[in-house]
Please model this.
Amino acid sequence: MKLKISEYAKLKSVTYRTVWNWIAKGLVQVEKTDTGRTFVILDAPTLEERVAVYCRVSSSENKTNLESQKQRMLQFCNAKGYRVSEVVTEIGSGLNDKRPKLEKLLLRKDISIIVVEHKDRLARFGTNYIQKLMALDGRAIEIVNNVEGEEDDLMQDFVSIITSFTARLYGKRRTKRRTEKLIKELQEDDS
Model:
């Protein structure tokens, strides 16, 4: 079966440009007509979908939640017919943008879908940007439980901002105390 590129983009819920990127990378087989039109061949083998599950909790106190989150995601993937090739679990703040396991997973081009339970399990902010960048490679993040009400989402963002700034404030105070202690030690050494 052949489809126009625009039809194929609509079928896959991606942009027209994304399909052209997939074609350039050889992820989608096409046929060109004598008149120069390009059609996507659906029966052609494409990149096998490799699915990874990403689970995260904020602190080690929530390790039991991490395991139950992992089980829920595996059940979801089984129900959708996904073959999960990898499960990544991590303990760290959603505000932290230096989570090594997530970074490694996002950089893996062989993973076509990353499944997460909630948007904030991936990141507190910038999830939309991560999704857009992955779409350029024909990859996707599937969020199982999107927040229904915008009010809930705004409240969660507000709490995240307060948490982030509080952590920075206390961190600065600790840094100031360490600096003062270092200066005092240096002054005592000079005496």
